[in-house]
Design brief:
The chain is α/β, with parallel strands linked by helices and 334 residues long. The chain has helices spanning 58-67, 73-79, 84-99, 127-139, 153-166, 184-196, 211-220, 237-247, 261-274, 288-300; strands at residues 2-18, 21-35, 38-44, 116-117, 120-122, 144-148, 173-177, 201-203, 225-227, 251-254, 278-281, 323-326, 329-332. The strands form 3 sheets. Strands 5-6-7-8-9-10-11 form a 7-stranded parallel β-sheet, with helices on one face. A 3-stranded antiparallel β-sheet has the order 1-2-3, sandwiched between helices. The chain has a 3-stranded antiparallel β-sheet with strand order 4-13-12, covered by helices on one side. The longest helix has 16 residues, at 84-99. The two termini are 26 Å apart. The relative contact order is 0.15.
Length: 334
Amino acid sequence: MKAKYFRYLLEFKRPSGTSRGVLHEKETFILEISENEKKGIGECAVFRGLSFDDKPDYEKKLQWLCENIQQDSKFLKENLKEYPSIWFGYEQAVLNLKHGKNFYFPSEFTEGKMPIIINGLIWMGDINYMEEQIQDKLKKGFHCIKLKIGVDWKSEHEILQKLRQKFSKEKLELRVDANGGFTKEESKTVLKQLTDLDIHSIEQPVKAGNWNDMAELCAETQTPIALDEELISIVNFNEKEKLLKAIKPQYIILKPSLIGGFSGSDEWISLAEEQNIDWWITSALESNIGLNAIAQYTFTKNSKMPQGLGTGCLFTNNFESQLDLRGEQLFFKG
């Protein structure tokens, strides 16, 4: 078995706004494993500024993996536990080597028989840009929309009020993602306003690491709170359990590229379900390679909630897509 990797820069069609700033490009690494003339492709989707493994020696560790690719997977996993996005790429490449073509998790989804329902993501921007995106998603038939908030709450609140005036919660599920953009006290005010608008949930109202603040908010809120960035730096199984028991969130958001791939996601799901915490899966600006693998994995988890999967259409130079979005339904086209 041999392995190699290459760096790839994804260019945004339009600069994409988050509470951390505006993104113009997204760096990623493609891992290729070969054995007996067969190849397996995976994406080590590091997210600069957010990934736990955004470290100066990232490429050195990736090279180490390539040099040690014949080692036992348990040995590799132990040595890559601080590099969840590299482990994510390794898991994909091994699965792809096994199943061939563009397959990672063969299922009714990869047979083109069943879709995944996704939410429509609204990127931050001025009010006109956000409203333009919302109208586009509604026109396409989305029943669940997620808005990034936390930059200009007054304007964002107005948009949510307008939406709720037009569409009841039965007709349109509204989710918001603060990316840690509020203080605890600001969050209390925002949560009250969100409750009045029948908002489905808010992701990460305060910055990750503030367990006590988050636990207090989760205990008091009428609007369900979802942990997102909070999960990223936790790699130890016992620590994951400790986090969920301490904060008691209503939901957790799983981003495989940031939390140790599919095995890391499976750990979080098992712990969450033990504590009656619901969850859904979200992509994190992967290329079409990683997105395809995440979509295939997501289908096998049988969640009935709209998932937070991207469609790969944000970039000008993406790889060929295996996915086809029809309205809010994501299909595998192969």
